[in-house]
Amino acid sequence: MKEGLKNTVLVLLITASLVQSYFLIYRLPGSYSIVNSESNYIKTENMGQEQRVENVLFPDQMIIHMGKDKHTIFYPESTFYQLIYSRLQGRNFGNFERQSVDSADWEELKKKHPGIELSFDGGIPVSLLQRVMQLDTDSLFQAETIHKIWIYTSDKDPKVHALFFSARGDVVYEASDVDLTVQDVLQHVDFGTGWTPYQLTEAGYYIPKEPLEVLQVEIPTGQYTVEQMQRSLFFDPSMTRNIQEKDGSEIYTDSKRSLQVKYNQRWISYNDPAAVLTSEVDRTKDVLAAIDFVNQYGGFNGTYRLTMDTEDQSTEINLLPYYDSYQILDLPQYGFEHMYLDVQKESVATYERSLLYLREGEEIDKQMVQLPYGEELEQQIKEVAGDTDLVSVYPAYHPQPTEAGMKLIPVWTVKLSTGEVRTLETK
């Protein structure tokens, strides 16, 4: 009996010891824990939605060629754009054959043959393109970056041609195995009938022959606080110190990483010098790392399209905001700019973003406006471009601050061969 009593007392003592240890480590409910995990400082609140990389990889425009030099353009989010793109994503392309880009007069063929052209501004590596389209693996093709896909058919050749143009501009790859019929292509092309007609100019860009109607909208804005970004980006915000710069900006640092706040605290730049430069760059892994980073540290508010600038030792990534079907341009003097990341060996060295965001779904005012077209538009383009070659002409939103938030004003935008982007004045 004494042995049983001893065992009972021993069990009670052990239980009491465990309970006491628990409260010493974690304290009582409602008080602060002595043991802190890294998750206490990462994503402490829901600042924005997470996105998959597939959701930020899409063509900036879809050009429908209808033969007899007739064309129209569908922009992202529009009904036929989404319908055609989703169907193409479900079809397979394989057995790629390489040829010189000078092997044919592609501009002339676009005038004659019905087809669909997908434009990827800045180019997209094949390994990333395979995440949104079904492309067979090919060692030669796999190393390419594609900036344009053209799928067409010809009366003289009853088959579907699928061409993938290299961003280098010297070669084009044709898929001889295409999971599309001539009737499939013609059906997609027919969707362009009755929509705003475009003409292909001698300079190689498209302008509408009729007024292009675009929605002008005023939207209230929200703004993340510096404290939110501090809590999100630093493992222990209490260990950071604040430095006031002469230009009015502030820098928060934990002696390793830094967070710079500019433009009346509407814009931030985060830098982590621990990122390692390397000659072995994997663009796909860098992009995936960038999307994971944004998901973890701030998230996405609305729709963004990804473009890339590839340096020798890093991958520069731009995440461009969209409203409806059109890109929202930067307004740097107001601290309203697109997201930018510099990724080195899957590690983010620089992360820049605006603290402002649009409260979509709470629009204050909407109205349809017409953008100029035809000869008037072409004359404006020539005046803006001067002697510089054009890369593209496209509609976009110019943001304008208002008392209630931000007004998105539709404008024609010209991208020059120098990389500069200029907007045409609206009347």
Query: Number of DSSP strands?
Result: 26
Quick one: biggest sheet?
9 strands, antiparallel
Uncertain regions spanning at least 5 consecutive residues: 1-7, 9-44
What percentage of amino acids are in beta strands?
A: 35-45%
User: Could you say which overall geometry the principal axes of the C-alpha atoms support?
Assistant: globular
Number of domains: 3
What is the number of helices?
9
Radius of gyration: 27 Å
The pLDDT mean sits at 85
* SSE-based structural type: alpha+beta
- Distance, first to last CA: 101 Å
Helix content: 10-25%
Pfam families: YycH (PF07435)
Domain Regulatory protein YycH: 3-416
Protein name: Regulatory protein YycH domain-containing protein
Account of the protein in words:
- With 427 residues, the chain is of the alpha+beta class.
- It folds into 3 domains: 2-35; 55-195, no CATH class; 221-358, 2-Layer Sandwich (TATA-Binding Protein), CATH 3.30.310.
- Helices cover 22% and strands 38% of the residues.
- The chain contains 9 helices and 26 strands.
- The longest helix has 25 residues, at 2-26.
- It is globular, with a radius of gyration of 27 Å.
- The protein starts with a helix and ends with a strand.
- Mean pLDDT is 85; it is low at 1-7 and 9-44.
- Residues 3-416 form the Regulatory protein YycH domain.
